[in-house]
Amino acid sequence: MTKFLISFPSDAMVVPAGEFDAVVEAAHAVIAEAKAAGVYVFGGGIDEDVDPVLVAADGTVTEGTYPGHTVPDGGYTVLELPSREAALGWAAKIAVACRCPQEVRQFQYDPDS
Known about the structure:
Elements: E1 2-8, H1 20-36, E2 40-45, E3 53-55, E4 61-63, E5 75-81, H2 84-98, E6 103-106
Antiparallel strand pairs: 1-5, 1-6, 2-5, 3-4
Helix pairs in contact: 1-2
């Protein structure tokens, strides 16, 4: 089984006024389905009200993110699945629920994680 990251940036999700509750309900239904299927690992949205920081090896904390990189935002779901094709299927379900395209990335295998 392989872990996949399914995600979208905040600005990709454009929901007409009055429809946000329906999107939340649809997204929660997909997550419930993934949990029932035993493939759900983790999911959530980045709290954009909390600024990111970098922590160096010496413990120094610096406001912001890596120079030249954008701050990650939006929603993330990690699923453990048997194939990339399965990941694309789940991404399609999330895309319908969230009303925006989803990016799919595969985690590298690490036997110690």
